[in-house]
């Protein structure tokens, strides 16, 4: 990264998926790497399964945490419909990381709307660099589906080339001790995807 460039990462998901925890771990790690980091979290009706977005910007000097449309270097979606909803925020040559996971919003559950078909195909047609995988399955295989947020974080760290620091130490600072072992395994699994 040259001295004046700022990188922008947009993390999007649904309330309860751990989007904010992943963003806090990421921000802490970036600060340890010596970057100026700004983070902004936006909760929709997150307690009721609504959208949660987190903007993380880092560089030598960052003036605002807010990412505008077409500015995200990487978009990490914890759920496929959220990826579709926020896709316009990704740069032309940006990277899209998608959890191959569906959470049906209330209108779909009530039969008033249909969940879009073939979102993965649409992502592949619109984005040159797209990574789609089932982070929930990876986390479930490790013992707890709730660790899918850290699996996605591991994939993000690898995709951005940010694996030069001890992320286990960062996790130890942010994650409760009783979940540390699981989260370390989840981070490593994500980095290997």
From TrEMBL:
<dbReference type="InterPro" id="IPR052198">
    <property type="entry name" value="IorB_Oxidoreductase"/>
</dbReference>
<protein>
    <submittedName>
        <fullName>2-oxoacid:ferredoxin oxidoreductase, gamma subunit</fullName>
    </submittedName>
</protein>
<dbReference type="InterPro" id="IPR019752">
    <property type="entry name" value="Pyrv/ketoisovalerate_OxRed_cat"/>
</dbReference>
<dbReference type="GO" id="GO:0016903">
    <property type="term" value="F:oxidoreductase activity, acting on the aldehyde or oxo group of donors"/>
</dbReference>
<feature type="domain" description="Pyruvate/ketoisovalerate oxidoreductase catalytic">
    <location>
        <begin position="15"/>
        <end position="192"/>
    </location>
</feature>
<keyword id="KW-0560">Oxidoreductase</keyword>
<dbReference type="Pfam" id="PF01558">
    <property type="entry name" value="POR"/>
</dbReference>
<dbReference type="InterPro" id="IPR002869">
    <property type="entry name" value="Pyrv_flavodox_OxRed_cen"/>
</dbReference>
């Amino acid at each position: 990264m040259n001295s004046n460039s700022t990188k922008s990462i947009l993390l999007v998901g649904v309330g309860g998926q751990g989007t904010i925890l992943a963003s806090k771990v990421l921000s802490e790690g970036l600060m340890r790497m010596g970057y100026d980091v700004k983070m902004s979290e936006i909760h929709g009706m997150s307690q009721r399964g609504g959208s949660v977005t987190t903007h993380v910007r880092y560089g030598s000097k960052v003036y605002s945490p807010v990412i505008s449309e077409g500015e995200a270097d990487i978009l990490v979606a914890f759920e496929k419909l959220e990826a579709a909803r926020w896709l316009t925020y990704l740069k032309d040559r940006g990277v899209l990381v998608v959890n191959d996971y569906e959470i049906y919003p209330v209108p779909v559950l009530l039969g008033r709307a249909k969940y879009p078909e073939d979102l993965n195909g649409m992502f592949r047609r619109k984005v040159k660099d797209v990574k789609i995988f089932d982070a929930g399955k990876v986390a479930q295989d490790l013992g707890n589906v709730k660790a899918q947020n850290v699996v996605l974080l591991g994939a993000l760290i690898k995709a951005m080339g940010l694996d030069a620091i001890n992320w286990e130490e960062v996790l130890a600072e942010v994650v409760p001790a009783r979940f540390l072992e699981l989260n370390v395994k989840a981070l490593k699994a994500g980095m290997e995807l």
